[in-house]
């Protein structure tokens, strides 16, 4: 569990693969390796090695097969993904199941800096991005369609990851996300059933603020709504995402701000989805998620992933929802939305930076009052360009890139904002 009063530390991470020069393709069947994550700006801050469990089906296709990311429950590890192997065989999907660390159920991971002694936290999107890149390296592929699911605390991770990825430049390309029997959810509101839905500690809602720290030297407190803006929430509601719950998961499960969301996991899932349907309309969009149940099943991971609607069905309920639900194009509501915070608040930084024209024919301008760095990535997370810029108007060219949407991260000191640039040549 998270404890209150911990500062949030946002970093850009790189992964270090011990065998990158001689990376071996992931073998058929079950195997394990590890990924080491460190920070280039502070070598004393070490994420350590993340154990990763794999399962590759015999019929896996090195050109077309997908990744199935699985996030385990509290107290478990990546080996719990064994319950998904039959599904992976039918879908020819490579299971990638990391053993998570820190406060991952709340989409953050924390470590102690051995120089300052301070606790520093980073978004778990960065961990998954490093593992994704590691898999690309081992499989010698430029990109791989990915599906994300998790059970119990892992289900909490998934539902929050689908939100956090709206403002994190380190998200991976997810085709479909599915949370299975989590204990609670993050409601896009300050309160629910007359109870406060606090962001701090348990991520129950959007009420309150987060304190950000860089090396424990400087901190700033930012309201949650200043880094999760309305456009982020609207795009979250338009994700390809499924809430899957067992109707027998009704054991009373009180705790903190969770209790106002419902008395048990099944009750909370129903209320979360119903609230989100209404809240999406209030925010000017529609909720495109899917809600489904597995009848009678309680808090049982194996049954949740392997139960069928009818005995004659070829696919399980979870499999149909994760792999066979018709996908829609996620609408881009905001080419610009302030995100990322540092010593300056996001609102202040917003006034210092302009990116135009948008849409662009390939040439665009970064107009800023400060010096900094721009990092441009495509929607698969591949970095296209990294460039230093200076105070004034800086011309940037993407003439050699294909039409589409690109993520433009503009960083000044410890602060950054994200623009979504549409390229139309």
Number of domains: 2
Task: Tell me which CATH architecture of the largest domain applies here.
Answer: 3-Layer(aba) Sandwich
Q: Can you summarize the main beta sheet?
A: 9 strands, mixed
Bin the helical content: 10-25%
CATH topology of the largest domain: Rossmann fold
What would you report as the Rg, rounded to the nearest angstrom? 21 Å
Q: In terms of structural class, how would the helical and strand content be classed?
A: alpha+beta
Shape: globular
CATH class call of the largest domain: Alpha Beta
Percentage of β-strand residues: 25-35%
Strand line-up in the sheet with most strands: 1-2-3-5-4-8-9-14-15
> How far from one another are the termini?
49 Å
Low-confidence stretches: 1-22, 39-46, 338-346
The CATH superfamily of the largest domain is: Alpha/Beta hydrolase fold, catalytic domain
Mean pLDDT score, rounded? 82
How many individual helices?
8
Oligomerization category of the chains in this entry: single chain
Annotation, overall tally of beta strands = 23
């Amino acid at each position: 569990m998270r404890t209150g009063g911990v500062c949030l530390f946002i970093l850009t991470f790189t992964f270090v693969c011990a065998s990158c020069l001689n990376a071996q393709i992931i073998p058929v069947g079950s195997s394990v390796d590890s990924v080491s994550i460190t920070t280039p700006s502070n070598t004393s801050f070490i994420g350590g090695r993340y154990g990763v469990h794999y399962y590759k089906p015999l019929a896996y296709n090195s050109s077309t097969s997908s990744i199935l990311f699985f996030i385990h429950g509290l107290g478990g590890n990546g080996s719990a993904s064994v319950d998904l192997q039959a599904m992976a065989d039918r879908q020819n999907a490579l299971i990638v199941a990391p053993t998570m660390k820190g406060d991952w159920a709340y989409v953050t991971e924390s470590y102690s800096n051995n120089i300052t002694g301070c606790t520093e936290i980073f978004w778990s999107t960065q961990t998954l991005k490093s593992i994704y890149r590691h898999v690309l390296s081992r499989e010698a592929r430029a990109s791989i369609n990915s599906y994300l699911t998790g059970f119990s605390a892992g289900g909490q991770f998934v539902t929050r990851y689908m939100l956090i990825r709206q403002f994190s430049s380190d998200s991976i390309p997810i085709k479909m996300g599915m949370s299975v029997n989590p204990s609670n959810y993050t409601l896009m509101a300050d309160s629910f059933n007359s109870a406060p839905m606090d962001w701090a500690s348990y991520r129950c809602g959007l009420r309150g603020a987060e304190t950000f720290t860089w090396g424990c030297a400087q901190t700033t407190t930012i309201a949650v709504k200043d880094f999760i803006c309305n456009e982020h929430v609207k795009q979250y509601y338009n994700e390809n995402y499924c809430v899957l719950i067992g109707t027998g998961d009704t054991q009373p499960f009180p705790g903190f701000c969770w209790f106002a969301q419902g008395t048990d996991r099944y009750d909370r899932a129903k209320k979360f989805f119903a609230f989100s349907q209404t809240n999406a309309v209030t925010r000017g969009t529609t909720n495109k998620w899917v809600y489904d149940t597995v009848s009678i099943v309680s808090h049982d991971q194996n049954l949740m992933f392997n139960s069928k609607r009818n005995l004659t069905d070829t696919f399980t309920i979870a499999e149909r929802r994760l792999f066979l639900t018709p996908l829609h194009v996620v609408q881009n509501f905001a080419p610009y939305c302030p995100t990322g915070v540092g010593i300056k608040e996001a609102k202040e930084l917003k006034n210092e930076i302009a990116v135009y024209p948008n849409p662009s024919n390939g040439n665009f301008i970064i107009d800023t009052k400060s010096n900094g760095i721009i990092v441009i990535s495509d929607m698969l997370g591949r970095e296209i360009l990294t460039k230093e810029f200076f105070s004034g108007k800086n011309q940037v060219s993407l003439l050699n890139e294909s039409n589409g949407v690109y993520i433009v991260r503009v960083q000044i000191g410890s602060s950054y904002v994200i623009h979504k640039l549409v390229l139309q040549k």
